[in-house]
Amino acid sequence: MHVAFVHRRGFGQFAALATQLLRAGNEVSLITETIDQKIPSVRVVRHRAEAGPRASPQMARYMGIPDHHTRIGHRVAETFDAMVRQGLVPDIVVGHIGWGSMMFLKDVLPQVPALGYCEFFYRSEGADIGFAPDDPPDLETRKRLRLRNIAQLVTLEAIEAGISPTHWQKGLYPADVRERITVCHEGIDTMRFRPDPSASVRLPDGRVLGAGGPPVVTFAARDLEPYRGFPQALEAAAKVVRTRPDVLFVFVGGDGTSYGMPPPGGGSWKDHLLASLDMPQENIVFPGVVPHPVLRQLFQISAAHLYLTYPFVLSWSVLEAMACGALVIGSDTAPVKEVIRDGQNGLLVPFFDTDALAEAILGALKDPESHLGMRAAARRTVERRFRLDRCLGLQQDMIENLAGKSLHRHAKTENDGVLL
Fold first, then answer.
1. Based on the number of CB atoms within 10 Å of its own CB, is 70 exposed (0-12), middle (13-18) or buried (19 or more)?
2. What is the pLDDT of residue 58?
């Protein structure tokens, strides 16, 4: 079977699925603007990247993003049209619907079934917008959010099915399309992300963290910013070290702003917050963005892992930390509550309550033995609901059902000519 993936930034959420399909002997294409990683034997077809909103000021106020998404959709449609003229017609298309890439797919391939990745449908209530009590959405924001969903609505009207990683994310979509959306996470490799008592991490200054060293509390996000609770985690850290000066906080993440607004005056949220925070430098480490193996080792040595988020897309990192047996202290927000049950497989605290967060951290540091059951339960949660082979099997079943044919499922060997 020929499966074509569509994603602006490379494989994204589809990397493990694409690899699995290749190993089973299927043909895989990727239609993309840029490539985030190379997977041998994948046919990569790049289309020209479209610059961001470029309309007049009045148009950009409302239609800048919809216009941008429409132009991306045109590029992808042109790419598929060229593939069709070369005889490269896929049996099914799997793609992210959030950027407009799939808008015109059915105009080029009306008979080819499509599975859309439904990651996030924008709402002015009940999700990230308006979550901060001091930032209620005004009328202009509400109108822009509604327009931002145009590409997804156009796509959903045409495609056969969708897939969302959590029930909460699925629930954001309009009621009349939810019945076509299946909940299935991309999957976590629990053989790779697993507890390891012997794990250690060497810091840039030469210090080695691990068994026998100072207790380590970890935090990880793409960028250190308010959407992922960085201000609250940093403030709680300052409170904790007053009682436990031996603890080391490791904040993994970049200095940019992936979501929301940058800090007043520009720059990074890290520098903005540290300027007014009384926090001993020896108790805090900012390693920036680290390689995935290092992040795994940090999860494995963590006395507690902090995961705070606005009601927004669930990060892979929290599930990877749970798979490593970390004690996750999370925010009582959606979709975290879908994964963590307070006192059973982790701890939950109110997002904005830094006193409660600091108290939870101190409790974890004071009596680590009493939390061993939660750590084990956290790993069992990931193994039961998010294990990679289980999720890949569900995704493959969806593809087979939509395409009306069976995928090759036998593993290819080196003699078959596919080396992965």
1. middle
2. 62
**Confidence check: pLDDT of 232 > 60:** yes
The whole-angstrom separation of Cα 105 and Cα 157 is 12
Q: What is the pLDDT of residues 143-181, one digit of tens each?
A: 999 999 999 999 999 999 999 999 999 999 999 999 999
Which residues, 6+ apart, have CB-to-CB distance to 51 below 8 Å? Answer: none
Stated length of the chain: 420
Query: DSSP secondary structure string, 171-239?
Result: HTS-HHHHTTEEE----B-TTTS---TT-EEE-TTS-EEETTS--EEEEEEEE-SGGGTHHHHHHHHHH
The region that residue 130 occupies, defined by phi over 0 for left and psi between -120 and 50 for alpha, beta otherwise, is left
- Residue 281 included in any domain: yes
Residue with tokens 């808008």: 103
Q: Which of 147, 165, 161 is nearest to 100 (CA)?
A: 147
Task: Please tell me the number of Cα atoms within 13 Å of 264 on its side-chain side.
Answer: 2
Residue 163 lies in a domain: yes
Q: Which two tokens stand for residue 56?
A: 């007049």
> Which residues make Cβ contacts (< 8 Å) with residue 374, sequence separation at least 6?
327, 343, 344, 345, 346, 347
CATH (domain of 250): 3.40.50.2000
Same domain as 288, residue 144: no
- Burial (Cβ within 10 Å: 0-12, 13-18, ≥19) of residue 282: exposed
Residues 6+ apart with CB under 8 A from 32: 6, 7, 8, 9, 10, 44, 45, 46, 47
Task: Classify burial at 224, counting beta carbons within 10 Å of its beta carbon; exposed 0-12, middle 13-18, buried 19 or more.
Answer: buried
One-letter amino acid of 151: A
Residue 60: predicted pLDDT:
63
pLDDT at 420: 19
Domain coverage including residue 366? 200-384
